[in-house]
Amino acid sequence: MTADERQSHIRGFSTWTTRRWLRVGVAVSLVVLTLLGTAGAWVLGRTQTISDDLVDVRSPALTVAIRLEAAVLNQETGIRGYGLTGMSEFITPYKQGLTEQEASFAQLNRLLEEDRAGLDDLKAVQGAVERWQERIARPIAAAPAGSPSPMATRRAAEGKEAFDDVRAALSSQQERLRADRVRTRDDLMDTMVLRNWVFSAIAVVIAVLTALIFEGLRRGINTPLERLSADARAVAGGDFGHPITPTGPADLRHLSREIDFMRQRLVQELALSEDTRLRLDAQAADLQRSNAELEQFAYVASHDLQEPLRKVSSFTQLLQRRYGGQLDSRADQYIDFAVDGANRMQTLINDLLDFSRVGRLHNSHQSVDLDKVLERTLSELSVGIEEAGAEITHDPLPTLVADPTQMGMLWQNLISNAVKFRRPGEAPEIHVTAAREGELWRFTVTDNGIGIAPEYADKVFVIFQRLHTKDTYTGSGIGLAMCKKIVEFHGGAIEVDPEYHDGTRITFTLAPQPPETPALPALPEADRADAEPAR
């Protein structure tokens, strides 16, 4: 075989899949085992056949031949004694010998029916016995008893010669039967040795086949899979540049190439996601800086508006006191509008300052007993609560790590809203609950007030969004927006329960330990002095 032919055969085998290798291996193993099984079955059958021939034919035939000889000898002894003495008791052995002779002939005919040489020997014995009986035994046995038979004396020499022929035929038959038995026994021993060799060869071939199968599985399946698994673990461990080496049958190599292609795609996607992450980090940093600047701008802008607004408010109030009633009614109305607008502007600016201070001025996390904070808040709101006739109850509240000022602002806005937005002619009933929910605490503030329509459930948490006019309910529309900012600053979320229809139920969550938050720009020293929490 040339080198090109060898390479062609190798390439042909390289395209075989695991299924094809298994099919070929199983087919070859089945053929070999079938051949071995056939050989083993033949050897076993041959052994059984020879054993049956030895046990059922050869040994019994020799035994019957010996009994036949004994029967003929009994006849000869009886006839000789009867011929010499004429005594009838010598006839009995002769008759018994005849009976045994017939039985032996019949048995030998049955045993040797497939043995041509054995049947020929049996016919020779039968002929010799028949001639002796015809010439000697039956004439002497037919003589009357009581006196010696003259024929026995006359035919003594002939009788001896005829019986010697019988003896020779019997001896020849027995010698042949003994030789056949010895030959059959030797064949049985040789066949048993062959049987042992065949089954030893079968055991060796099965062991070799088993070893070849396991070695083929190890080299063709286990080793490639282990290598593939090791490469996959290396990639899963973070070494994304580690190549997947294709080994083994064609389908396993195809699988390795597919996994390597997936690895390459993963490397590309990781590179793309890393680039995207870097851009997002940059955008997040820009957004955080922008938000911080916006918050700083909102605080500074609202703070800087305080002074001119104070002047406007002071002079409009001074104008109202000094010239009120001296001008016409329209001028008094204009002055009232100016005073009211200045006051509302003052309120909006103060609320905006409070909103901007959340997480900036008040950012002192410590262990806070919410029961005490709520009681202190209720004490501060006691006048409004008493005027409204409100009944406020609460479950035991937990102790969390939080900013105490912000927790006070949270309870103050929620309780004051529940008292303010009550139903006309009905005393407010407010209940506060707290329950552990996984890693968070869930709180609810439930009242029997006018409620919030589902379509406004998100709008109420937007800054300066009002659902009612200022004439119906006072306020700037910043309270729930401030609550949302406080709750989110402490790692929670707040919402309106849409399933509650007998008033309003505000639910919010707080973390036992607030998350780390980036530091916000500090307030100027001059601003800190006059920064007071909104109430």
Please outline the helices and strands.
Elements: H1 3-14, H2 18-85, H3 91-111, H4 116-142, H5 150-154, H6 156-236, H7 250-323, H8 329-357, E1 366-369, H9 370-380, H10 382-388, E2 391-394, E3 399-402, H11 404-420, E4 429-437, E5 440-447, H12 479-489, E6 494-496, E7 504-510, H13 525-529
Parallel strand pairs: 2-4
Antiparallel strand pairs: 1-3, 4-5, 5-7, 6-7
Distance between the termini: 101 Å
Summarize the biggest pleated sheet: 5 strands, mixed
Oligomeric state of the chains present here:
single chain
Strand order, largest beta sheet: 2-4-5-7-6
Catalogue the unreliable spans: 522-535
* Secondary-structure element pattern, one letter each: HHHHHHHHEHHEEHEEHEEH
Q: What's the total helix number?
A: 13
* Approximate helicity band: 55-70%
The share of residues in extended strands comes to 5-15%
Compute the number of strand runs: 7
Shape by Cα distribution: rod-shaped
Mean pLDDT: 81
Radius of gyration: 62 Å
Global structural class: alpha+beta
